[in-house]
Amino acid sequence: MHYFTLHGGLRPFGTAAIIASYDPESKEHALYMVEPSGISYQYYGCAAGKGRQPAKTEMEKLALNKPAKEENITVREGVKQLARIIYTLYEEGKDKPFELEMSWLCEESGWKHKGVPKDVISESVEWAKQDIADAEEEDDEEDEDEDEGEMEE
């Protein structure tokens, strides 16, 4: 990518990078995203690429930055919620098939960047698909109730 920015005849790539870090001395973790323009911001949760805005909207609903006195979601719960967000935004007929891969930097990984274990991802995907199906059933039931109410009037 850097090579393409050095030569006038080549078109530079527009890329975003998400960087997670942990400082063992201060015991603080951080998440940054570097935009294609080169500007960087610190986040509690962020998304890049196609569907980033709806994903950010869904992440804002999660308890990612509550004060220390209140309970934040666990890392495993976060994996489940992110799987739900990705599968909610995925349009099967429109998008290409994909395999969900995740990595984390947390106490469970020894504060090292590692891939989320496959069994945790599998459990999260199953939970996410079930949660989406349950939500769709509730929506269908609400729609039927509204339709019946209109007929009575």
Q: What distance separates the N and C termini?
A: 63 Å
What is the second-level CATH architecture?
A: 4-Layer Sandwich
- Return the string of H and E elements: HEEEHHEEH
Widest sheet: strand order? 1-2-3
Q: Strands, helices and their partners?
A:
Layout: H1 2-6, E1 17-23, E2 28-34, E3 40-43, H2 52-60, H3 75-89, E4 103-104, E5 114-115, H4 118-152
Antiparallel strand pairs: 1-2, 2-3, 4-5
Helix pairs in contact: 2-3, 3-4
Description:
With 153 residues, this protein is an alpha+beta fold. The protein has one domain: Glutamine Phosphoribosylpyrophosphate, subunit 1, domain 1 (4-Layer Sandwich). 42% of the residues lie in helices and 14% in strands. The chain is built from four helices and five strands, in the order αβββααββα. Strand 2 (28-34) and strand 3 (40-43) form a beta hairpin. The radius of gyration is 20 Å and the shape is globular. The termini are far apart. The mean pLDDT is 84.
